[in-house]
Specification:
- By secondary structure, the chain is α+β, with helices and mostly antiparallel strands.
- The chain folds into two domains: 59 residues; 179 residues, Jelly Rolls (Sandwich).
- The chain is built from three helices and 15 strands.
- The strands form two sheets. Strands 1, 3, 4, 6, 11, 12, 13 and 15 form an eight-stranded antiparallel β-sheet that branches. It has a seven-stranded antiparallel β-sheet with strand order 2-5-14-7-8-9-10, with no helix packed on it.
- Helix 1 runs antiparallel to helix 2.
- The longest helix is centred in the first third of the chain and has 28 residues.
- The protein is elongated and about 110 Å long.
- It starts with 5 loop residues before the first helix and ends with a strand.
Length: 275
């Protein structure tokens, strides 16, 4: 449907009226009819003008016909951004992250290596550590809560080079953290990292007899409770040691490369719970 333009109708009416008035001079016999026609057209024009005024009154006003100010535009843009931004919800200190989308309350950082050779993303409900450079040490921590005692479980599948470490970390702070590393060749080590001297001190190392070697899926467990630090693999406790340096901090996971690439590890879920 084509809309009617009141201004166009008024212009056409005025033109028609002028033509009719000009015709009046041709004879007095038609004077009375033309006068009646003139009165009718005048009434029509007044009705159209009234209709146009009503339509104008219904339009939203911005004050003296001026365009919106920059302040109003900025406020409108901010409101639109707030409506589009996803809501951040508190998942609580203990929950299961299944990575259906990139979590907003986790943070990654590199302790070593070039960030251009590292990607962290979610795909097919998996958290993917995609490392193409050598000696990249990547960590991912849950930042909503700090923990004294905590348990972290996750399931990971190795899809790349076997020469890598999959890690669990607890009591992460500006002082350092505890780190449990399990290489895909079946060897493990437990470290205490101190920020002040940028030093990893090995607390224990050994082998995991029940690990599935190669491009396989394994379940990893870390328990930090009091001064006891425990590593588990596929439902079996591997080693418990004791250390008293760190008392609380964030918890998280990590993947590292050495001199063999690419390293590609997918995590199906990460569960944080009470030990």
């Amino acid at each position: 449907m084509i809309g009617i333009n009141p201004r166009g109708m008024l212009a056409a009416t005025a033109t028609m009226l002028a033509i009719l008035l000009a015709a009046c001079s041709s004879g007095n016999a038609q004077s009375e009819n033309l006068a009646a026609t003139e009165r009718a057209l005048s009434a029509t024009q007044q009705a159209l003008e009234a209709q146009q005024q009503r339509q104008s009154d219904q339009q939203p006003q911005r004050g003296l016909g001026a365009p919106a100010t920059e302040e109003v535009q900025e406020e409108q843009e901010q409101q639109e951004q707030e409506q589009e931004a996803p809501a951040v919800t508190d998942k609580g200190p203990y929950y299961v992250e299944e990575f259906s989308e990139p979590p907003m309350d986790w943070t990654y950082y590199l302790l070593n290596g070039d960030s251009r050779d590292f990607q962290l993303y979610t795909e097919r409900d998996r958290l993917v550590f995609d490392i193409k450079g050598e000696y990249i040490w990547a960590y991912y921590t849950y930042d909503n809560y700090t923990y004294g005692d905590v348990r972290v479980d996750f399931r990971a599948k190795n899809l790349g080079n076997n020469n890598n470490n999959v890690s669990l970390i607890c009591r992460v702070s500006d002082r350092g953290w505890y780190e449990f590393n399990v290489a895909n060749n079946g060897l493990y080590s437990i470290y205490r990292y101190t920020v002040s001297d940028n030093n990893f001190r090995e607390l224990y190392s050994g082998g995991v007899a029940n690990m599935r070697i190669g491009k396989e899926t394994n379940d990893y467990t870390m328990i930090c409770k009091g001064n006891r630090l425990t590593l588990g693999m596929n439902g079996v406790e591997i080693r418990t040691i004791e250390d008293n340096l760190f008392e609380e901090g964030f918890a998280g996971v990590g993947v590292s490369s050495f001199d063999g690439t690419p390293v590609l590890v997918e995590m199906e879920y990460v569960e944080i719970s009470q030990p």
